[in-house]
Amino acid sequence: DEPAALRRALSTWTELARRDSMDPAVQEGLLPIPWALDRLQSYDESLARYLEAINALEAARGRMNVAMQSIQRGRMVKTIVGHDAGPERGWTWRLGTLPDLPETFFLQSVLAEHRFQEALKRYRDARLLARHVEASGKQAATLAGDPPSALRRRLEALRPRADAIAAGQDALLEAISTRELQGQRSTIEKYLTEARFAVARIYDRQAQQAAP
Questions:
Q1: CA–CA distances in Å: residue 151 to residues 26, 136, 137, 160
Q2: Which helix (H) or strand (E) holds 189?
Q3: Which of 75-89, 128-142, 145-159 has the highest mean pLDDT?
Q4: Are 101 and 76 within 8 A, CB to CB?
Q5: Residue 92: which of 59, 121, 128, 55 has the closest Cα?
Q6: Region 54-66: what's the mean pLDDT?
Q7: CB 51 within 8 A of CB 63
């Protein structure tokens, strides 16, 4: 029967809800709990659970906004590359560990995708190339006399090209990350709307029951 099925489902949803509410899977499971309690006529507990869900979802949205601000300021990509620094370049480089940033938690699935990894590697290689070009220019300047004109022209041409490649990949990574976070934030806002409507219905029902 329905009550027995709801109680079995409640056990699973309650276990899920004990996990980190920043996890989208946990957020999805926050609303079925008070809904099931309402169906089981545990109205006070249902209301309490809806209010808990609203608090958790608002906290998640707040962290999401902080994550998006960090991405828009260009902090994420530079921090990831700096956190996972090493001598490897090109096809041999793989992202090892992630820095402790709000956005990396929400973007774990995207960070593992091929398109993100490849753009990140191209960004990293371009920044390394720019640094090598700058170092080579400084070394050339220490040589006796002026550096050869051909070498100077090559170095001068390479630096803006490397910077342009890095800027392009940085913009691509920001676009991928922002799109993902916007989707997650929209989902959180949908859950918040559903929870608030449910709370309003409960209050309305309580008011009707209390009316003479």
A1: 58, 10, 9, 15
A2: helix 149-210
A3: 128-142
A4: yes
A5: 121
A6: 90
A7: no
Does an H or E element contain 94, and which?
A: none
Residue-wise pLDDT tens digits, 78-103:
666 664 555 444 444 455 555 556 56
Q: What tokens appear for 168 in the block? A: 């392009």
Better-predicted residue by pLDDT, 139 or 65 = 65
Q: How many CA atoms lie within 13 A of 61 on its CB side?
A: 15
Secondary structure (DSSP) of 6-54: HHHHHHHHHHHHTS-TTSHHHHHHHTHHHHHHHHTT-HHHHHHHHHHHH
The residue type at 67 = A
Indicate the helix (H) or strand (E) that contains 155: helix 149-210
Measured at the alpha carbon of residue 13, what is the angle toward residues 184 and 64, in degrees to the nearest 5?
20
The H-assigned helical ranges of 73-148 are: 75-83, 102-106, 108-111, 114-142
Backbone angles phi, psi at 107, to 5 degrees: -105, 15
- Give CA–CA dist 190/171, Å, rounded: 28
What pLDDT is attached to residue 160? 85
Q: Which residues of 23-41 are buried (b: 16+ CB within 10 A; e: fewer)?
A: ebebbebbbbbbbbbbeee
Q: Say what the pLDDT of residue 93 is.
A: 46
